[in-house]
Amino acid sequence: MLNYDYIITGAGPAGCVLANRLTEDRDVSVLLLEAGGRDSHPFFRMPAGFAKMTKGIASWGWSTVPQKHMQGRVLWYTQAKVIGGGSTINAQIYTRGNARDFDGWNDEADCAGWSYRDVLPYFKRAEGNERFHDDFHGSEGPLGVSMPRAALPICDAFIRAAQQCGIPYNHDFNGRKQEGVGFYQLTQKDVARSSAASAFLRPAMTRPNLTVMTSTEVSRVVIEKGRAIGVELVDRRRNKKAIVRADREVLVTSGGIGSPRLLLLSGIGPADHLRNIGIEVRHDLKGVGENLQDHLDLSVISECSGDFSYDTVQRLDRTVVAGLQYLLFRAGPVASSLFETGGFWYADPDARSPDIQFHFGQGSGIEKGIAKLDNPGVTLNSAFMRPRSRGTVRLRSADIAEAPLIDPNYWADPYDREMSLRGLEMAREIMSAPALKPFLLREALPGSVVSGEQELVDFACRVAKTDHHPAGACKMGRDPMAVVSPELKVHGLEGLRVCDSSIMPLINSSNTNAPTIMIGEKASDLVRGLPALPPAIFEHERNDRVRLAR
After folding, report:
1. Domain assignment present for 325
2. What are the pLDDT digits (tens) for 393-415?
């Protein structure tokens, strides 16, 4: 039987960070397991390769259960199955959320040590920002963060249009304030995707104390006498299983859906559910699979009055030219993440911080399930960032080959529906603003015939998609439904932690890749028993201290 000090169950963003940081100590051995394959396909490196990813490349191929508050709609639910996880297939948007999100973890969820001041140093430690080095940003970290290189002129028009609708310009959504419209920072380095695999894992793979196994699925965490002592691996091709021991800890980093799924397969979760599907209860923990949160996306698609988007690049001759342009000059359409501008604003005027996020897409049909126009078009996505609805992750059976039952329970709270529809109306208003009139011919979807509330609801139920941000189903906290402690230890078990987006007690108000990398960074210090990084102090506070000292 093989033995390692630490076993990490998934090579997503947090898993890659942990593999790197833990193996800095040459006296420990680490096994990193990944059900998917290597990130060797060229699409993974090319920024525009994102357009292929949500349509099935390197994903599990899962869908939601019918959404009872959305007319029974079943949504495609892309979850990464590849080294680097979501950071290998996402749109590379680097946003962290709002400072109040993390203060909510600390105060509302009773998770001491996870306030904004506490986690900001871990964001900065990971970040290698090409433009900013200040109170809010780091420039020496492994993760490449840069400004867009291939935004089209219509992106500037979109930014002006949003300002005409009352949304101010913001040069840095991760700085002093989140609200506003502008250019996103992207997880790119040298005009190529900077995934957790390329930034964190690849530099560590030369270390003799790190073993990486791909195309290897973990079927369960092995529990003996209240302690995780290893994992069981399954080889479906040979119908064989093997157990690998962890002498120190098992670190679950299988993702927002994969981590609660793995705990349930291991007999860790609500006893009634486990018994109903024939899994032996190893540890009755009611919160596993509960508290699932996600961002729901609604889209406005407009037809362009000329060749103002990247839609026409899909012609074979233009695709070849674009590919050569990227390979030779690191420029052109392939250098675009396709979503390079956007912003944050308010659907609820009483909200304390922005609750709507916009992503402006330089094309139509970019993601699976979004309509593709015959002529060039552009897309404006709006997503409500702070849903009150809570869903679940459950198992269909004890068979690891079966997809889990994913129920985000969208719009279970009527407030979420109201705010989502307000965001959609805001997106329509922006797309109708004067700055975009020279570029746009008409609103293709929803279209001018859709105006009443019920018509908007029907449209939304037809076109809504996930923002690919599942979180919270192994939530951190101290209440009876919490799964892990603020140290990320699974309540009631030894030697087992969960260290990814599933531990978020409240979903952050933006894309989830950057916070998941932060979780991996902080988790690595917790696992190693290192003191936490000193909480952030901002420039005005340092100046005040200097004045007081005088």
Report:
1. yes
2. 999 999 999 999 999 999 999 99
In a domain, 393, yes or no: no
273 is catalytic: no
- Mark which of 434, 463, 492 sits at the end of a domain: 463
Does the pLDDT of residue 546 top 70, yes or no? no
Look at residue 1 and tell me whether its pLDDT is greater than 70: no
Count the alpha carbons within 13 Å of 168 in the hemisphere toward its beta carbon: 8
Cβ-contact 378, 308 below 8 angstroms: yes
Query: Are residue 280 and residue 310 in the same domain, yes or no?
Result: no
Cα separation of 240 and 234, whole Å? Answer: 6
Q: How far is CA 75 from CA 86, 301, 353, 380, 466, in A?
A: 18, 19, 28, 19, 7
Q: Tens digit of pLDDT for each residue in 222-279?
A: 999 999 999 999 976 667 889 999 999 999 999 999 999 999 999 999 999 999 999 9
The H-assigned helical ranges of 361-445 are 414-431
Same domain (yes/no): 447, 548: no
* pTM summary value: 0.97
Contact 290, 505 (CB under 8 A): no
Domain ranges, residue 454: 149-183+296-384+411-463
Looking at the fold, whether 542 and 451 belong to one and the same domain comes out as no
pLDDT tens digits along 44-72: 999 998 777 767 789 999 999 999 999 99
179 falls within a domain:
yes
| Cα distance between residue 348 and residue 433, in whole Å | 21
Please state, in angstroms and rounded to a whole number, the distance separating the CA atoms of residues 121 and 138.
9
What average pLDDT does the structure give for the chain? 95
Does residue 393 contact residue 473 with C-beta atoms inside 8 Å? yes
Domain end residue (candidates: 428, 463, 498): 463
Contact by Cβ (8 Å): 170, 98 = no
- Are 436 and 505 members of one domain? no
Pairing assessment for the beta strands 240-252 and 496-498 based on DSSP bridges: parallel
- Asked whether residue 125 falls in the same domain as residue 241, the answer is yes
Q: Are residues 132 and 85 in the same domain?
A: yes
Residue 405 lies inside a defined structural domain of this protein: no
Q: Tell me the pLDDT tens digit for each residue of 466-478.
A: 999 999 999 999 9
Tell me how many degrees the CA angle 138-143-148 measures, rounded to the nearest 5.
90
Give yes or no: residues 269 and 319 share one domain. no
Would you say 519 and 471 are in contact if contact means Cβ atoms under 8 Å apart? no
Residue of 273, 469, 491, 540 marked catalytic: 469
The predicted-structure confidence for 64-109, as pLDDT tens digits, reads as follows 999 999 999 999 999 999 999 999 999 999 999 999 999 999 999 9
Asked if residue 492 and residue 347 are part of one domain, the reply reads no
DSSP 492-524: T-BSEEE-SGGG-SS--SS-SHHHHHHHHHHHH
Among 190, 165, 193, which residue's Cα sits nearest to residue 180? 165
Q: CA–CA distance from 508 to each of 100, 285, 312 (Å)?
A: 9, 24, 35
CATH of the domain at 335: 3.30.410.40
* Number of folded domains that form the chain: 2
